[in-house]
Amino acid sequence: MKLTNLRKKGRNLLLASALAVSVTTSSFLLFSPKSAMIKKDFAVAEQQYGQMLKTAKDLSQFPRTTNKDGSVKSTDVWDWTGGFFPGGLWYIYEYTQKPEWKAAATKWTEALEKGQFLTQHHDVGFVMYCSYGNALRFEKDPEKIEKYHKILIQSAESALTRFDPKVGLIKSWNAKKSWDNKTTWLYPVIIDNMMNLEMLCYVSKLTGNPKYKDVAISHALNTMKNHFRPDFSTYHVVDYDANGNVVHQQTNQGYADNSTWSRGQGWAIYGFTMMYRETKDQRFLEAAEKAADFYINHPNLPKDKIPYWDFNVNQAGYQPDWAYDAKKLNYIPRDASAGSLTASALLELSTFSANGPQYFKQAEQMLTSLSGPDYLAKPGTNSGFILKHSVGSLPHNSEVDVPLVYADYYFLEALLRYQKLVK
Ligand code: GLY
To answer: Residue by residue, what is the 3-state secondary structure of the chain?
Structure first.
C-alpha cells in the first residue's frame, strides 16, 4: 500500500472513530440517565395533570390534595396554595413547549386575578408569584403583560399592608393561639414567609421603586436574626411585640417548639438562597448554606434523603404541646413536599456556593428518590397529582401522607433547574 493510501485510510479511520465518539456523546446526552429521568418525570406530569384538567372544571377551585374517597380537594383563591396548580402547568409548558399547556396555564393563572387583593394573611406572594410570575416568563402579548404587571404590583401592595416598620417584618397571620393554649401570638411570623419575598424583589425591579425590596430585605434580616437557633435549625413561629421584640419562639406545624419542622427548614434554605440571588448580600448566602448543612447532615435524614415530616419526632428532649398519639401511626410519615422544595433550593444554592458540588449531589439524590416508584405516582393513580407522600400539618391531623400540589410544583421546578445544570 502506498504511503498516501495509508494516510488516507488512517484519516478515514480517524474520521470514523471521531464520528462514532460524537454519535455516542450526543446519544449519551440525549439518552443519558439524567435526561431520561427528567423526560420520564415530565411524561408522568403530562399524564397526571392532563387527567386533572379533565376533572377540574371549576376555575374558582384550585387543586390542592385528595379527599379520603380519592377525589381532588381544592381551595379557593384566598387560601395559600392557589398559585401552585397554574405554576405547575407553566413548568410543564416550559419543558414540553406544547401550546395546550400554555393555554391551560393561562386560564388557571387568570382565574387567580382577585388574589391580588389578598391581605388576610401573608401568602399573597406564594399565590400570585407562582402563577403570574411564571406567566410573565412566557407571555408575549403586550396587553396581557401590562395587565399581569399591574396585578403583581397590586399583589405587592397587598403584602405591604402587613408590614409594620416598627417591627420590621411582614405579619404572617392575624392573632392566633399557640398549642400550649397559654399564649396568644399577636404578631406571628413564620419561616414560610421568606417565600413571599421574591415577588417583592420582582416588583421593585418592575417599578423602579425600592420600597418593596427594602421590605423584603428588612424581613429577611430580622428572620435571620430570630428564626435560627445556634445550630441553624429553625423555629417555625416567632411572635413579636409592637416594638419588634421577640416574645415567643414556637411551632404550629412542627412536632415541638424546639424541633425542626422539615418543610420549614426547606423554606429557610430556599428563601435565603433566593434573597442572596436578589441582593448578593453574603449574609443571606451564609444563612442558606448553614440551614442547608443542618438539613443534609442531620442524622435523622433517611437514606433516600426525603425527610420525615419533622426531624425530631419521638426523640427525647422534644415535647409536643398538642395531643400527640405516638401509637396512632405505626410509622413516621415522610414529607415529599419538603424533599422537592429542598431539592430545588439546593440546586440553586449549588450555583452560588463554594460547597456547590455537595449541594448538587444531595439534590440529585433527592430528585432520584422522588422520581422512583416510592414517590412518583403511577399514571392514572394519585387523583392526578404527581408525587405521593406529603404532609400538610400533622398536629392539625390534616393532610397526612397525601399528595400535595406544592410538592408537585417544586418537583417540576427542581427538574427544570436540574436540566439546566446537567446540560
Ligand atoms: N406555608 C404553609 C405550609 O408550608 O404548610
So the answer is: CCHHHHHHHHHHHHHHHHHHHHHHHHHHHHHCHHHHHHHHHHHHHHHHHHHHHHHCCCCCCEEEEECCCCCEEEECCCCCCCCHHHHHHHHHHHHHCCHHHHHHHHHHHHCCHHHHHCCCCCCHHHHHHHHHHHHHHHCCCHHHHHHHHHHHHHHHHHHHCCEECCCCEECCCCCEECCCCCCEECCEEEHHHHHHHHHHHHHHHHHCCCHHHHHHHHHHHHHHHHCECCCCCECCEEEECCCCCEEEEECCCCCCCCCCEHHHHHHHHHHHHHHHHHHCCHHHHHHHHHHHHHHHCCCCCCCCCCCECECCCCCCCCCCCCCCCCCCCCCCCECHHHHHHHHHHHHHHHCCCCCHHHHHHHHHHHHHHHCCCCCECCCCCHHHCCECCEEEECCCCEEEEECCHHHHHHHHHHHHHHHHHHC
